[in-house]
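re: ur question from earlier - yeah i can do the single chain one, its not a big deal. heres the input i used so u can compare w yours
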Amino acid sequence: MGGVTVPGHPALGRGVVVAAGQAVPEAWVDAPTVVVDEAALAGTSDAVDRLRAAWVTRRPVVVRCALDPATFRAPPTWRGDVWALRPDHRLPAEELQFLVWANTYDARSGTPVWWWGRKAQRAGAAALADGAVGDVAVDGRPVWVDGGPRQPWPEPPGGLGVVHRESVERGALRVAPAWRPPAAELAADQMAAVTHDRGPARIIAPAGSGKTRVLTERVRHLLVDRAYDPDAVLAVAYNKRAQQELEARCAGLPVRARTLNSLGLWVCTEAAGRGPTVLAERDVRDVVRRLAPRPQLRANTDPYAPYLEALATVRLGLVDPEVVEAGRDDVPGLPRVFTGLRERFADTGALDFDDQVYGAVEALLADGELRARLQLRCRHLLVDEFQDLTPAHVLLIRLLAGPQADVFGVGDDDQVIYGHAGADPSFLIDFARLFPGAASHPLEVNYRCPPAVVGAAASLLSYNHRRVAKTITAGRPEAPDGPPGLTVRRHGAQDGATAVVEVVRGWLDGGAGPGEVAVLARVRAALLGPVVALRAAGVPVDSAVGPELLERTGVRAALAYLRLATGPERMAAADLVEVYR
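and the output i got, formated as C-alpha coordinates:
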Protein backbone atom coordinates (compact mmCIF):
# COMPACT_ATOMS: atom_id res chain seq x y z
CA MET A 1 0.00 0.00 0.00
CA GLY A 2 3.00 2.35 0.12
CA GLY A 3 1.92 3.73 3.48
CA VAL A 4 -1.69 4.52 2.51
CA THR A 5 -4.06 3.61 5.32
CA VAL A 6 -7.29 1.99 4.08
CA PRO A 7 -9.89 3.29 4.58
CA GLY A 8 -8.18 6.20 6.35
CA HIS A 9 -9.27 7.62 9.70
CA PRO A 10 -13.05 7.20 10.31
CA ALA A 11 -13.49 10.96 10.71
CA LEU A 12 -12.44 11.46 7.09
CA GLY A 13 -15.42 9.45 5.82
CA ARG A 14 -13.80 8.07 2.68
CA GLY A 15 -15.70 5.88 0.23
CA VAL A 16 -14.62 3.59 -2.59
CA VAL A 17 -15.26 3.29 -6.34
CA VAL A 18 -15.74 -0.18 -7.85
CA ALA A 19 -16.69 -1.36 -11.32
CA ALA A 20 -19.99 -3.00 -12.20
CA GLY A 21 -20.02 -6.60 -10.93
CA GLN A 22 -16.84 -6.16 -8.89
CA ALA A 23 -16.66 -7.35 -5.30
CA VAL A 24 -16.69 -4.61 -2.65
CA PRO A 25 -13.45 -4.35 -0.60
CA GLU A 26 -13.86 -5.65 2.92
CA ALA A 27 -13.50 -2.22 4.57
CA TRP A 28 -16.72 -1.03 2.85
CA VAL A 29 -18.92 -4.14 2.83
CA ASP A 30 -21.42 -2.46 5.19
CA ALA A 31 -21.48 0.91 3.39
CA PRO A 32 -24.49 1.88 1.23
CA THR A 33 -24.08 1.56 -2.54
CA VAL A 34 -24.79 4.22 -5.15
CA VAL A 35 -24.97 3.17 -8.80
CA VAL A 36 -23.60 5.62 -11.35
CA ASP A 37 -25.18 4.84 -14.72
CA GLU A 38 -26.82 6.59 -17.68
CA ALA A 39 -29.73 7.71 -15.48
CA ALA A 40 -27.31 9.35 -13.05
CA LEU A 41 -25.52 11.08 -15.93
CA ALA A 42 -28.84 12.36 -17.28
CA GLY A 43 -29.92 13.56 -13.84
CA THR A 44 -32.99 11.30 -13.78
CA SER A 45 -31.92 9.21 -10.77
CA ASP A 46 -31.13 10.20 -7.18
CA ALA A 47 -27.48 9.15 -7.50
CA VAL A 48 -26.07 12.69 -7.45
CA ASP A 49 -28.14 13.69 -4.42
CA ARG A 50 -27.11 10.56 -2.51
CA LEU A 51 -23.45 11.06 -3.35
CA ARG A 52 -23.63 14.68 -2.25
CA ALA A 53 -25.31 13.80 1.05
CA ALA A 54 -22.58 11.23 1.73
CA TRP A 55 -19.80 13.68 0.86
CA VAL A 56 -21.23 16.55 2.92
CA THR A 57 -21.72 14.38 6.00
CA ARG A 58 -18.52 12.34 5.50
CA ARG A 59 -20.34 9.02 5.36
CA PRO A 60 -18.44 6.27 3.48
CA VAL A 61 -20.25 5.04 0.39
CA VAL A 62 -19.62 2.45 -2.31
CA VAL A 63 -19.79 3.99 -5.78
CA ARG A 64 -20.58 1.25 -8.29
CA CYS A 65 -19.60 2.75 -11.61
CA ALA A 66 -21.60 1.22 -14.47
CA LEU A 67 -20.14 3.82 -16.86
CA ASP A 68 -16.66 4.48 -18.13
CA PRO A 69 -15.63 7.48 -15.96
CA ALA A 70 -14.21 9.06 -19.13
CA THR A 71 -17.81 9.77 -20.20
CA PHE A 72 -18.11 12.44 -17.50
CA ARG A 73 -14.47 13.45 -17.06
CA ALA A 74 -14.52 16.57 -19.25
CA PRO A 75 -16.45 19.58 -17.87
CA PRO A 76 -19.80 19.61 -19.69
CA THR A 77 -20.92 22.45 -21.92
CA TRP A 78 -24.36 23.89 -22.61
CA ARG A 79 -25.39 26.24 -25.39
CA GLY A 80 -28.73 27.89 -25.87
CA ASP A 81 -30.83 30.78 -24.66
CA VAL A 82 -29.77 31.52 -21.11
CA TRP A 83 -33.17 33.10 -20.41
CA ALA A 84 -34.67 29.62 -20.79
CA LEU A 85 -32.82 28.40 -17.67
CA ARG A 86 -33.81 28.61 -14.03
CA PRO A 87 -31.54 29.70 -11.18
CA ASP A 88 -31.37 26.09 -9.96
CA HIS A 89 -30.11 24.74 -13.32
CA ARG A 90 -27.85 21.74 -12.74
CA LEU A 91 -25.00 20.07 -14.63
CA PRO A 92 -25.22 16.42 -13.49
CA ALA A 93 -22.05 15.35 -15.32
CA GLU A 94 -20.02 18.04 -13.53
CA GLU A 95 -21.47 17.05 -10.17
CA LEU A 96 -20.75 13.38 -10.84
CA GLN A 97 -17.13 14.00 -11.81
CA PHE A 98 -16.60 15.83 -8.52
CA LEU A 99 -18.62 13.63 -6.16
CA VAL A 100 -17.45 10.28 -7.53
CA TRP A 101 -13.78 11.13 -6.96
CA ALA A 102 -13.64 13.87 -4.30
CA ASN A 103 -13.34 11.60 -1.26
CA THR A 104 -13.07 8.03 -2.53
CA TYR A 105 -10.47 5.36 -3.16
CA ASP A 106 -10.27 3.86 -6.65
CA ALA A 107 -10.53 0.08 -6.29
CA ARG A 108 -11.47 -0.73 -9.89
CA SER A 109 -8.11 -2.42 -10.46
CA GLY A 110 -8.29 -4.37 -7.20
CA THR A 111 -6.01 -2.59 -4.72
CA PRO A 112 -7.59 0.69 -3.47
CA VAL A 113 -5.69 3.75 -4.67
CA TRP A 114 -5.96 7.13 -2.93
CA TRP A 115 -5.34 9.47 -5.86
CA TRP A 116 -5.09 12.62 -3.74
CA GLY A 117 -2.12 11.02 -1.99
CA ARG A 118 -0.52 10.28 -5.37
CA LYS A 119 -1.10 13.89 -6.48
CA ALA A 120 0.39 15.15 -3.21
CA GLN A 121 3.54 13.15 -3.96
CA ARG A 122 3.76 14.83 -7.36
CA ALA A 123 3.64 18.16 -5.48
CA GLY A 124 6.59 17.13 -3.31
CA ALA A 125 5.19 14.96 -0.51
CA ALA A 126 7.04 11.77 0.43
CA ALA A 127 5.59 8.28 0.45
CA LEU A 128 5.24 6.52 3.80
CA ALA A 129 6.70 3.18 4.67
CA ASP A 130 4.39 0.16 4.59
CA GLY A 131 2.34 -0.07 7.75
CA ALA A 132 2.71 3.61 8.65
CA VAL A 133 -0.48 5.52 9.50
CA GLY A 134 -1.33 8.41 7.20
CA ASP A 135 -1.30 9.13 3.47
CA VAL A 136 2.00 10.91 2.81
CA ALA A 137 4.75 12.73 4.68
CA VAL A 138 5.18 16.51 4.57
CA ASP A 139 8.35 17.91 6.12
CA GLY A 140 9.01 14.47 7.57
CA ARG A 141 5.63 14.21 9.33
CA PRO A 142 2.82 11.87 8.27
CA VAL A 143 -0.37 13.66 7.27
CA TRP A 144 -3.76 12.94 5.81
CA VAL A 145 -4.68 14.36 2.40
CA ASP A 146 -8.36 15.15 2.87
CA GLY A 147 -10.91 14.96 0.07
CA GLY A 148 -14.00 15.87 2.07
CA PRO A 149 -15.57 19.30 2.65
CA ARG A 150 -12.93 21.70 3.91
CA GLN A 151 -13.25 22.24 7.66
CA PRO A 152 -11.25 22.99 10.80
CA TRP A 153 -10.09 20.06 12.92
CA PRO A 154 -10.29 20.86 16.67
CA GLU A 155 -9.22 17.22 17.16
CA PRO A 156 -6.86 16.21 14.33
CA PRO A 157 -7.78 12.76 12.95
CA GLY A 158 -5.53 10.25 14.64
CA GLY A 159 -3.38 13.14 15.86
CA LEU A 160 -2.06 13.77 12.34
CA GLY A 161 -1.98 16.97 10.35
CA VAL A 162 -4.33 17.48 7.41
CA VAL A 163 -3.55 18.77 3.93
CA HIS A 164 -6.72 19.53 2.02
CA ARG A 165 -7.13 18.59 -1.63
CA GLU A 166 -7.65 22.33 -2.40
CA SER A 167 -3.98 22.89 -1.60
CA VAL A 168 -2.94 19.84 -3.61
CA GLU A 169 -4.89 20.95 -6.68
CA ARG A 170 -2.88 24.19 -6.52
CA GLY A 171 0.36 22.24 -6.35
CA ALA A 172 0.93 23.13 -2.69
CA LEU A 173 1.21 21.12 0.53
CA ARG A 174 -0.25 23.50 3.10
CA VAL A 175 -0.92 21.69 6.40
CA ALA A 176 -4.02 23.07 8.11
CA PRO A 177 -3.14 25.08 11.23
CA ALA A 178 -4.35 24.13 14.68
CA TRP A 179 -7.95 25.19 15.23
CA ARG A 180 -8.49 28.57 16.85
CA PRO A 181 -11.57 30.78 17.24
CA PRO A 182 -11.87 34.34 15.94
CA ALA A 183 -10.18 37.00 18.05
CA ALA A 184 -13.09 39.42 17.64
CA GLU A 185 -15.67 39.83 20.40
CA LEU A 186 -18.89 38.48 18.90
CA ALA A 187 -22.31 37.65 20.26
CA ALA A 188 -23.20 33.97 20.42
CA ASP A 189 -25.31 34.00 17.23
CA GLN A 190 -22.66 35.97 15.35
CA MET A 191 -19.92 33.61 16.55
CA ALA A 192 -21.89 30.58 15.37
CA ALA A 193 -22.16 32.10 11.89
CA VAL A 194 -18.53 33.22 11.66
CA THR A 195 -17.19 29.82 12.79
CA HIS A 196 -19.52 27.72 10.62
CA ASP A 197 -17.44 24.60 10.11
CA ARG A 198 -17.97 23.38 6.54
CA GLY A 199 -20.05 23.64 3.40
CA PRO A 200 -22.65 26.22 2.43
CA ALA A 201 -24.45 28.34 5.00
CA ARG A 202 -27.40 30.71 5.05
CA ILE A 203 -27.10 33.67 7.41
CA ILE A 204 -30.48 35.32 7.98
CA ALA A 205 -29.51 38.81 9.14
CA PRO A 206 -32.39 41.16 10.08
CA ALA A 207 -31.79 44.90 10.21
CA GLY A 208 -29.29 45.95 12.88
CA SER A 209 -28.07 42.42 13.62
CA GLY A 210 -24.43 43.01 12.61
CA LYS A 211 -24.59 41.57 9.09
CA THR A 212 -21.52 43.37 7.77
CA ARG A 213 -19.53 42.53 10.88
CA VAL A 214 -20.34 38.85 10.51
CA LEU A 215 -19.38 38.90 6.83
CA THR A 216 -16.06 40.64 7.39
CA GLU A 217 -15.17 38.52 10.42
CA ARG A 218 -15.94 35.39 8.41
CA VAL A 219 -13.47 36.56 5.76
CA ARG A 220 -10.89 37.25 8.47
CA HIS A 221 -11.53 33.86 10.09
CA LEU A 222 -11.01 31.96 6.83
CA LEU A 223 -7.87 33.84 5.83
CA VAL A 224 -6.20 34.23 9.24
CA ASP A 225 -7.45 31.53 11.60
CA ARG A 226 -7.91 28.76 9.02
CA ALA A 227 -5.18 29.90 6.60
CA TYR A 228 -7.29 29.37 3.49
CA ASP A 229 -5.59 30.28 0.23
CA PRO A 230 -6.59 33.93 -0.47
CA ASP A 231 -6.88 33.07 -4.15
CA ALA A 232 -9.72 30.65 -3.34
CA VAL A 233 -11.81 33.00 -1.16
CA LEU A 234 -13.97 35.65 -2.80
CA ALA A 235 -16.42 38.09 -1.21
CA VAL A 236 -19.23 39.37 -3.43
CA ALA A 237 -20.86 42.69 -2.56
CA TYR A 238 -24.06 44.02 -4.09
CA ASN A 239 -22.60 47.38 -5.15
CA LYS A 240 -19.36 49.36 -5.17
CA ARG A 241 -20.05 51.14 -1.90
CA ALA A 242 -20.60 47.84 -0.06
CA GLN A 243 -17.42 46.43 -1.63
CA GLN A 244 -15.38 49.41 -0.45
CA GLU A 245 -16.78 49.14 3.08
CA LEU A 246 -15.91 45.45 3.20
CA GLU A 247 -12.37 46.11 1.99
CA ALA A 248 -11.95 48.92 4.52
CA ARG A 249 -13.01 46.66 7.38
CA CYS A 250 -10.59 43.98 6.17
CA ALA A 251 -7.66 46.38 5.75
CA GLY A 252 -4.36 44.56 5.98
CA LEU A 253 -5.77 41.25 4.75
CA PRO A 254 -5.32 39.83 1.23
CA VAL A 255 -9.06 39.96 0.71
CA ARG A 256 -10.58 39.57 -2.75
CA ALA A 257 -13.87 41.43 -3.11
CA ARG A 258 -16.00 42.15 -6.16
CA THR A 259 -19.40 43.56 -6.92
CA LEU A 260 -21.84 41.33 -8.78
CA ASN A 261 -21.20 43.19 -12.02
CA SER A 262 -17.45 43.20 -11.48
CA LEU A 263 -17.68 39.44 -11.01
CA GLY A 264 -19.54 39.09 -14.29
CA LEU A 265 -17.10 41.37 -16.10
CA TRP A 266 -14.19 39.31 -14.77
CA VAL A 267 -15.73 36.16 -16.24
CA CYS A 268 -16.38 37.87 -19.59
CA THR A 269 -12.80 39.16 -19.67
CA GLU A 270 -11.38 35.71 -18.94
CA ALA A 271 -13.62 34.20 -21.63
CA ALA A 272 -12.61 36.73 -24.29
CA GLY A 273 -8.96 36.96 -23.31
CA ARG A 274 -9.28 40.74 -23.13
CA GLY A 275 -11.44 43.33 -21.45
CA PRO A 276 -14.63 43.98 -23.44
CA THR A 277 -15.86 47.48 -24.20
CA VAL A 278 -18.61 48.44 -21.75
CA LEU A 279 -21.25 50.55 -23.45
CA ALA A 280 -22.94 53.48 -21.75
CA GLU A 281 -26.74 53.57 -21.68
CA ARG A 282 -26.88 56.13 -24.47
CA ASP A 283 -24.96 53.76 -26.75
CA VAL A 284 -27.30 50.88 -25.93
CA ARG A 285 -30.24 53.16 -26.51
CA ASP A 286 -28.88 53.99 -29.95
CA VAL A 287 -28.64 50.27 -30.84
CA VAL A 288 -32.18 49.70 -29.57
CA ARG A 289 -33.43 52.66 -31.61
CA ARG A 290 -32.13 51.03 -34.78
CA LEU A 291 -33.67 47.65 -33.96
CA ALA A 292 -37.07 48.59 -32.55
CA PRO A 293 -40.07 49.40 -34.74
CA ARG A 294 -40.43 53.11 -35.39
CA PRO A 295 -42.49 54.36 -32.43
CA GLN A 296 -45.30 56.86 -32.42
CA LEU A 297 -43.58 59.83 -30.81
CA ARG A 298 -45.38 61.57 -27.97
CA ALA A 299 -44.43 64.72 -26.17
CA ASN A 300 -42.38 64.30 -22.99
CA THR A 301 -42.12 60.53 -23.36
CA ASP A 302 -39.14 58.25 -23.96
CA PRO A 303 -40.19 55.49 -26.38
CA TYR A 304 -37.02 53.46 -25.77
CA ALA A 305 -36.92 53.44 -21.97
CA PRO A 306 -39.49 50.58 -21.86
CA TYR A 307 -37.20 48.51 -24.09
CA LEU A 308 -34.24 49.00 -21.76
CA GLU A 309 -36.39 47.94 -18.82
CA ALA A 310 -37.77 44.92 -20.69
CA LEU A 311 -34.30 43.84 -21.79
CA ALA A 312 -33.22 43.88 -18.13
CA THR A 313 -36.17 41.63 -17.29
CA VAL A 314 -35.09 39.15 -19.96
CA ARG A 315 -31.44 39.07 -18.99
CA LEU A 316 -31.50 39.45 -15.20
CA GLY A 317 -34.91 37.91 -14.57
CA LEU A 318 -34.34 35.08 -17.09
CA VAL A 319 -37.69 35.54 -18.80
CA ASP A 320 -38.58 34.63 -22.40
CA PRO A 321 -38.59 37.83 -24.53
CA GLU A 322 -41.93 36.82 -26.02
CA VAL A 323 -43.41 36.50 -22.52
CA VAL A 324 -42.07 39.92 -21.55
CA GLU A 325 -43.49 41.48 -24.71
CA ALA A 326 -46.88 39.84 -24.14
CA GLY A 327 -47.00 41.22 -20.59
CA ARG A 328 -46.52 44.82 -21.70
CA ASP A 329 -47.97 47.10 -24.35
CA ASP A 330 -44.94 49.31 -24.98
CA VAL A 331 -42.22 46.97 -26.37
CA PRO A 332 -43.43 45.63 -29.74
CA GLY A 333 -40.83 43.45 -31.43
CA LEU A 334 -38.87 42.84 -28.23
CA PRO A 335 -37.59 39.36 -29.26
CA ARG A 336 -36.06 40.87 -32.41
CA VAL A 337 -34.54 43.72 -30.42
CA PHE A 338 -33.07 41.29 -27.88
CA THR A 339 -31.57 39.03 -30.56
CA GLY A 340 -30.21 41.98 -32.51
CA LEU A 341 -28.65 43.56 -29.44
CA ARG A 342 -26.84 40.39 -28.45
CA GLU A 343 -25.66 39.81 -32.02
CA ARG A 344 -24.26 43.33 -31.98
CA PHE A 345 -22.44 42.58 -28.72
CA ALA A 346 -20.97 39.38 -30.19
CA ASP A 347 -19.83 41.14 -33.38
CA THR A 348 -18.20 44.10 -31.63
CA GLY A 349 -16.91 42.47 -28.45
CA ALA A 350 -18.88 45.00 -26.43
CA LEU A 351 -21.48 44.62 -23.72
CA ASP A 352 -23.59 46.72 -21.41
CA PHE A 353 -24.22 46.66 -17.67
CA ASP A 354 -26.78 43.82 -17.65
CA ASP A 355 -24.84 41.74 -20.17
CA GLN A 356 -21.90 41.66 -17.80
CA VAL A 357 -23.98 39.17 -15.82
CA TYR A 358 -25.97 37.54 -18.63
CA GLY A 359 -22.89 37.19 -20.85
CA ALA A 360 -20.89 35.73 -17.95
CA VAL A 361 -23.49 33.02 -17.38
CA GLU A 362 -23.53 32.26 -21.10
CA ALA A 363 -19.72 32.01 -21.23
CA LEU A 364 -19.50 29.72 -18.18
CA LEU A 365 -22.10 27.35 -19.62
CA ALA A 366 -20.58 27.26 -23.11
CA ASP A 367 -16.97 26.65 -21.98
CA GLY A 368 -16.52 23.91 -19.40
CA GLU A 369 -12.76 24.37 -19.21
CA LEU A 370 -13.19 28.08 -18.47
CA ARG A 371 -15.74 27.27 -15.79
CA ALA A 372 -13.44 24.71 -14.14
CA ARG A 373 -10.54 27.18 -14.17
CA LEU A 374 -12.52 30.00 -12.58
CA GLN A 375 -14.10 27.69 -10.00
CA LEU A 376 -10.59 27.17 -8.59
CA ARG A 377 -10.65 30.85 -7.59
CA CYS A 378 -14.17 30.69 -6.16
CA ARG A 379 -13.92 27.69 -3.85
CA HIS A 380 -15.34 29.75 -0.97
CA LEU A 381 -17.82 32.47 -1.92
CA LEU A 382 -19.26 34.94 0.58
CA VAL A 383 -22.27 36.75 -0.88
CA ASP A 384 -23.86 39.81 0.71
CA GLU A 385 -27.50 40.99 0.29
CA PHE A 386 -28.54 37.61 -1.04
CA GLN A 387 -32.21 38.58 -0.97
CA ASP A 388 -31.68 41.12 -3.76
CA LEU A 389 -30.01 38.77 -6.21
CA THR A 390 -31.89 38.25 -9.46
CA PRO A 391 -32.23 34.80 -11.09
CA ALA A 392 -29.24 35.53 -13.34
CA HIS A 393 -27.14 36.56 -10.33
CA VAL A 394 -28.01 33.34 -8.50
CA LEU A 395 -27.16 31.20 -11.52
CA LEU A 396 -23.84 33.03 -11.92
CA ILE A 397 -22.96 32.36 -8.26
CA ARG A 398 -23.93 28.68 -8.54
CA LEU A 399 -21.88 28.13 -11.69
CA LEU A 400 -18.79 29.71 -10.13
CA ALA A 401 -19.23 27.87 -6.83
CA GLY A 402 -19.35 24.62 -8.79
CA PRO A 403 -20.23 21.21 -7.36
CA GLN A 404 -18.55 22.08 -4.06
CA ALA A 405 -21.24 24.79 -3.60
CA ASP A 406 -19.42 26.41 -0.66
CA VAL A 407 -21.45 29.64 -0.50
CA PHE A 408 -21.84 31.75 2.63
CA GLY A 409 -25.02 33.68 1.79
CA VAL A 410 -25.97 36.65 3.98
CA GLY A 411 -29.29 38.48 3.73
CA ASP A 412 -32.82 39.00 4.97
CA ASP A 413 -35.83 37.68 3.09
CA ASP A 414 -37.94 40.47 4.66
CA GLN A 415 -35.88 43.17 2.93
CA VAL A 416 -36.29 42.39 -0.78
CA ILE A 417 -36.34 45.74 -2.61
CA TYR A 418 -35.45 44.68 -6.15
CA GLY A 419 -38.44 42.45 -6.83
CA HIS A 420 -39.12 44.43 -10.00
CA ALA A 421 -35.82 43.12 -11.39
CA GLY A 422 -36.53 39.50 -10.45
CA ALA A 423 -35.16 39.36 -6.89
CA ASP A 424 -37.15 36.84 -4.88
CA PRO A 425 -37.21 35.92 -1.17
CA SER A 426 -37.33 32.25 -2.21
CA PHE A 427 -33.61 32.38 -2.94
CA LEU A 428 -33.04 32.66 0.81
CA ILE A 429 -36.08 30.63 1.86
CA ASP A 430 -34.99 27.71 -0.34
CA PHE A 431 -31.25 28.30 0.03
CA ALA A 432 -30.58 24.61 0.79
CA ARG A 433 -32.19 23.62 -2.51
CA LEU A 434 -29.83 25.90 -4.40
CA PHE A 435 -26.84 24.85 -2.26
CA PRO A 436 -27.50 21.32 -0.97
CA GLY A 437 -26.39 20.55 2.55
CA ALA A 438 -26.50 24.19 3.63
CA ALA A 439 -26.68 24.96 7.33
CA SER A 440 -28.64 27.89 8.72
CA HIS A 441 -27.28 30.44 11.20
CA PRO A 442 -29.89 33.11 12.02
CA LEU A 443 -28.85 36.35 13.68
CA GLU A 444 -31.49 37.19 16.27
CA VAL A 445 -30.50 40.46 17.98
CA ASN A 446 -31.17 43.96 16.64
CA TYR A 447 -28.50 46.22 18.15
CA ARG A 448 -29.72 49.35 16.38
CA CYS A 449 -33.26 49.93 17.66
CA PRO A 450 -35.04 50.08 21.04
CA PRO A 451 -37.48 47.31 22.05
CA ALA A 452 -40.62 49.16 20.92
CA VAL A 453 -39.31 49.57 17.38
CA VAL A 454 -38.05 45.98 17.22
CA GLY A 455 -41.36 44.64 18.44
CA ALA A 456 -43.40 46.72 16.02
CA ALA A 457 -41.18 45.73 13.09
CA ALA A 458 -41.41 42.04 13.99
CA SER A 459 -45.19 42.28 14.20
CA LEU A 460 -45.43 44.03 10.84
CA LEU A 461 -43.07 41.60 9.11
CA SER A 462 -45.02 38.61 10.39
CA TYR A 463 -47.69 39.45 7.79
CA ASN A 464 -45.30 38.59 4.94
CA HIS A 465 -46.65 35.41 3.41
CA ARG A 466 -43.32 34.06 2.16
CA ARG A 467 -40.56 34.35 4.69
CA VAL A 468 -38.20 32.52 7.01
CA ALA A 469 -39.71 32.41 10.50
CA LYS A 470 -37.39 34.34 12.76
CA THR A 471 -36.87 35.58 16.29
CA ILE A 472 -35.74 39.19 16.68
CA THR A 473 -34.95 40.72 20.06
CA ALA A 474 -33.66 44.17 20.97
CA GLY A 475 -30.03 44.44 21.97
CA ARG A 476 -30.44 47.72 23.81
CA PRO A 477 -32.95 48.81 26.47
CA GLU A 478 -35.59 51.49 26.17
CA ALA A 479 -34.26 54.85 27.41
CA PRO A 480 -35.81 55.26 30.91
CA ASP A 481 -36.06 59.06 30.85
CA GLY A 482 -36.46 59.74 27.15
CA PRO A 483 -39.45 59.65 24.83
CA PRO A 484 -40.86 56.28 23.82
CA GLY A 485 -38.99 54.53 21.04
CA LEU A 486 -42.11 54.28 18.90
CA THR A 487 -45.48 55.99 18.89
CA VAL A 488 -48.15 55.14 16.33
CA ARG A 489 -50.61 57.88 15.35
CA ARG A 490 -53.56 57.22 13.08
CA HIS A 491 -54.89 59.87 10.72
CA GLY A 492 -57.34 60.17 7.89
CA ALA A 493 -56.36 59.38 4.33
CA GLN A 494 -56.01 63.07 3.44
CA ASP A 495 -54.59 64.26 6.76
CA GLY A 496 -51.04 62.85 6.62
CA ALA A 497 -49.31 66.17 5.97
CA THR A 498 -51.23 67.90 8.76
CA ALA A 499 -50.31 65.11 11.19
CA VAL A 500 -46.64 65.43 10.26
CA VAL A 501 -46.71 69.18 10.96
CA GLU A 502 -48.31 68.62 14.39
CA VAL A 503 -45.72 66.01 15.43
CA VAL A 504 -42.71 67.95 14.13
CA ARG A 505 -43.94 71.21 15.65
CA GLY A 506 -44.38 69.44 18.98
CA TRP A 507 -40.80 68.17 18.93
CA LEU A 508 -39.41 71.56 17.98
CA ASP A 509 -41.43 73.30 20.69
CA GLY A 510 -40.09 70.69 23.12
CA GLY A 511 -36.50 71.71 22.45
CA ALA A 512 -35.43 69.55 19.53
CA GLY A 513 -33.39 71.22 16.82
CA PRO A 514 -34.49 71.03 13.16
CA GLY A 515 -31.40 68.97 12.37
CA GLU A 516 -32.51 66.32 14.88
CA VAL A 517 -35.84 65.63 13.16
CA ALA A 518 -36.21 63.42 10.08
CA VAL A 519 -39.37 62.74 8.08
CA LEU A 520 -39.27 59.45 6.18
CA ALA A 521 -41.57 58.12 3.48
CA ARG A 522 -41.75 54.91 1.47
CA VAL A 523 -41.10 56.74 -1.82
CA ARG A 524 -39.80 60.22 -2.53
CA ALA A 525 -43.03 61.40 -4.16
CA ALA A 526 -44.86 60.82 -0.87
CA LEU A 527 -42.75 63.58 0.72
CA LEU A 528 -44.25 66.31 -1.44
CA GLY A 529 -47.30 66.90 0.79
CA PRO A 530 -45.35 67.01 4.09
CA VAL A 531 -42.71 69.33 2.59
CA VAL A 532 -45.31 71.81 1.37
CA ALA A 533 -47.20 71.68 4.67
CA LEU A 534 -44.07 72.12 6.81
CA ARG A 535 -42.87 75.10 4.82
CA ALA A 536 -46.33 76.64 4.95
CA ALA A 537 -46.14 76.25 8.74
CA GLY A 538 -42.82 78.09 8.85
CA VAL A 539 -40.72 75.01 9.66
CA PRO A 540 -37.24 75.03 8.05
CA VAL A 541 -36.93 72.02 5.73
CA ASP A 542 -33.93 70.44 4.01
CA SER A 543 -35.74 68.27 1.49
CA ALA A 544 -34.86 65.60 -1.05
CA VAL A 545 -37.89 66.72 -3.06
CA GLY A 546 -37.20 69.32 -5.75
CA PRO A 547 -39.07 70.94 -8.64
CA GLU A 548 -38.24 67.96 -10.87
CA LEU A 549 -41.02 66.03 -9.15
CA LEU A 550 -43.54 68.35 -10.80
CA GLU A 551 -42.20 67.30 -14.22
CA ARG A 552 -43.31 63.70 -13.85
CA THR A 553 -45.90 62.73 -16.43
CA GLY A 554 -48.65 61.92 -13.94
CA VAL A 555 -48.06 65.05 -11.85
CA ARG A 556 -47.99 67.27 -14.94
CA ALA A 557 -51.29 65.82 -16.11
CA ALA A 558 -52.90 66.25 -12.69
CA LEU A 559 -51.80 69.88 -12.48
CA ALA A 560 -53.08 70.52 -16.01
CA TYR A 561 -56.51 69.16 -15.07
CA LEU A 562 -56.55 71.35 -11.95
CA ARG A 563 -55.68 74.48 -13.89
CA LEU A 564 -58.32 73.80 -16.53
CA ALA A 565 -60.96 73.07 -13.90
CA THR A 566 -60.27 76.10 -11.73
CA GLY A 567 -59.55 78.67 -14.46
CA PRO A 568 -61.05 77.63 -17.82
CA GLU A 569 -60.95 81.26 -18.96
CA ARG A 570 -57.15 81.07 -18.81
CA MET A 571 -56.91 77.89 -20.86
CA ALA A 572 -53.32 77.20 -22.02
CA ALA A 573 -52.29 75.12 -25.04
CA ALA A 574 -49.74 73.17 -22.98
CA ASP A 575 -52.45 72.09 -20.54
CA LEU A 576 -54.67 70.93 -23.42
CA VAL A 577 -51.79 68.81 -24.76
CA GLU A 578 -51.30 67.18 -21.34
CA VAL A 579 -55.02 66.39 -21.04
CA TYR A 580 -55.15 65.10 -24.62
CA ARG A 581 -52.34 62.67 -23.83
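The first strand starts at residue 15 and ends at 19. not sure if urs matches, ping me
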